[in-house]
Specification:
Elements lengths: L4 H12 L8 H5 L5 E7 L6 E7 L18 E6 L2 E8 L4 E4 L11 E7 L5 E7 L6 E13 L2 E13 L7 E12 L6 E6 L1 E2 L5 E3 L7 E3 L3 E8 L13 E10 L1 H16 L18 E16 L1
Parallel strand pairs: 1-17
Antiparallel strand pairs: 1-2, 2-5, 3-4, 3-6, 4-5, 6-7, 8-9, 9-14, 9-15, 10-11, 10-13, 10-16, 12-15, 16-17
């Protein structure tokens, strides 16, 4: 079937001629402007943050920086507790301290945003409990790059999925080491690079069983006969591994963004709709809980 793919593609192009529709520019310009919101909360975060902007019609020629809204009233609430986030002009988002408004597992939070010109949006999300990161394993593999045999290092995470409920997860990591060859000497922090779905997972196959991440690559590849230390890194080497247990709002939004990035350079790919749980606007209000495991090599 694959060898006829080019034929089907040509037929698709021909058929598109019959689907052409005339669109009046005024129809595009008359699309309503909506509020764009991005807010993700977690019991482990050190700051509560929300980004607020406005959508831009296709024929709008204003600069992107003018889309940000700095004078909205942004409120987080759960039960009788509430807090108003303050706009930070340098960071360009609304923020508050979790010490004043702790985020708690199992609680449902409401986000409400109002602007001086009368626009308003609302959203709600529930915070999932943390899932323990059970194992972090460092490993290496031999790869062929530019006709040279080389070696690259990676980490794999393992955890147990919670039975009886749909599980959404994200793996992240930071490696920290001291650069003695730098002038001046300094501490370097680099992200662990997960392949595939960029660290996003569901439990469709495991259903309450053991889950293992894709390889999370660390640093660049090196000649296969050279060691991890001190060729690539120096000691002490610290890997801070994070496992995020996501709620559905967070997962669906970020998975759609990933799919959109994968097809944005392909003019023949179908557009990827970005889901929203913002009532009256666009964007996402999501939540997650994080567990962390630290690996130190000295």
């Amino acid at each position: 079937m694959k060898k006829f793919g080019w034929l089907l593609g040509i037929l698709g192009l021909v058929s598109c001629q019959n689907l052409r529709q005339e669109v009046q520019p005024q129809q595009l310009a008359d699309q309503p402007v909506k509020l764009l919101v991005a807010c993700f909360i977690s019991p482990q975060d050190t700051v509560l943050a929300a980004k607020v902007a406005r959508s831009r019609p296709i024929l709008d020629d204003e600069t992107v920086t003018n889309l940000e809204i700095a004078n909205a009233t942004v409120t987080l609430q759960t039960g009788s507790r509430s807090i108003v986030l303050t706009y930070h002009p340098r960071l360009r988002y609304y923020r508050a301290s979790p010490n004043q408004f702790p985020i708690r597992v199992g609680e449902t939070y409401q986000l409400s945003i109002q602007t001086p010109d009368g626009q308003s949006v609302e959203a709600s999300t529930t915070v999932p409990e943390a899932v323990s990161l059970q194992q972090v394993r460092l490993d290496s593999e031999v790869v062929l790059e530019n006709d040279q045999v080389r070696k690259r290092f990676f980490a794999r995470y393992a955890w147990s999925d919670r039975p009886g409920q749909t599980g959404y997860y994200q793996t992240e990591g930071i490696v920290t080491y001291h650069c003695f060859g730098c002038s001046p000497e300094k501490t370097i922090r680099e992200p662990v690079r997960f392949v595939g779905q960029q660290g996003l997972y569901t439990d469709r196959e495991s259903k309450g069983g053991r889950m293992v991440s894709d390889p999370g690559y660390i640093g660049a590849s090196i000649p296969s006969n050279q060691p991890f230390f001190p060729t690539l890194f120096s000691k002490p080497f610290v890997l801070t591994a994070d496992l995020r247990h996501l709620n559905a709002d967070y997962y669906r939004y970020h998975q759609a963004l990933l799919r959109q990035q994968e097809v944005e350079s392909n003019p023949f790919a179908e557009p990827v709709p970005i889901p929203t749980n913002i009532r009256g606007g666009l964007g996402c209000f999501g939540a997650y809980s994080r567990s962390t495991q630290t690996v130190i090599l000295q």
